[in-house]
């Protein structure tokens, strides 16, 4: 487990660690498995330099069969060359940028929809409200590449997915006065709004719209979703929606997982825990299958320990060809970039100062 456990994304990192541990517990509890798994966890603190060192430590450890993580885009970019050179398969569920550095050995699996892919259900949801025809898109550079990629993709996809139009605006990082840009969006007849940026900016935009009594559908990128948005936006947060790549403990498909999480950790699973649980479950299944095939053909054991450590290239190839029904989604990867196939996502709405899970995001269909 390669995670940010003490840095800016520590909440996501800790949630993912818990998911991985639950998946390993489940695997080890089955009596007929060919080996037992253990979890090794290293903290990159959210620092790219530290992330590269974590990757080096994992690749040098012959006991490590695969890695779940890193947590952030920057950490993944820094670690990827090391993992790829060693052909050590790494599955990240929360590093979602469109393009990562070129890799020769296909070690990285992006086990979550990219920021651009998430724009498809965002556009579909915003522009299928009755009476909405023009989407105002506000890209806040404070959100970095995540905001740019999501906002750009939403602007690009709107005419291909809907009959609607867009009015996009971009503001520099550090913008604190959003009244002029919001006024411009509304002056250009925007009857639905999408903010791509960070929680601070999203809360400011929410307060501006609250003062204007804007009652159209409005949505912020999932990177803005959290306690900071709720606390800073106050009452103006109510009604805002988020399309997120992570499921909720209340989702029917997550019921068994959520109960196991409560029993193991005494708490509800947080965002990203189920996705890490799925990624680790996929790896465990493919490891066991490799061991089973080796046993059937009387080859040396492919268990994850000792001299029989599995060849990492074989595991990488097995993951690339896999299809796995997880708690949060179906996992399969495209051949070109090994990105997740499909745009399965989840919708949340703020009601009475809390995030309420609405269910799976509707799948967009091309306009007729």
CATH topology of the largest domain: Rossmann fold
Element order, helices and strands?
EHEHEHEEHEHEHEHEHEHHHEEEE
Poorly predicted parts: 305-309
Give the DSSP E fraction (strand runs of 2 or more residues): 5-15%
CATH class of the largest domain: Alpha Beta
Characterise this structure.
With 368 residues, this protein is α/β, with parallel strands linked by helices. It folds into two domains: 2-113 and 251-331, Rossmann fold (3-Layer(aba) Sandwich); 116-244 and 345-360, Response regulator (Rossmann fold). 41% of the residues lie in helices and 15% in strands. The protein has helices spanning 10-29, 48-60, 73-85, 115-126, 144-161, 179-187, 199-212, 227-233, 255-265, 273-296, 312-320, and strands spanning 2-3, 42-43, 67-68, 90-92, 108-110, 134-140, 165-171, 192-196, 218-220, 241-244, 324-325, 330-331, 346-351, 354-360. A four-stranded parallel sheet has the order 7-6-8-9, sandwiched between helices. A hairpin with a 2-residue loop joins strand 13 (346-351) and strand 14. The protein is elongated and about 70 Å long. The protein starts with a strand and ends in an 8-residue tail after the last strand.
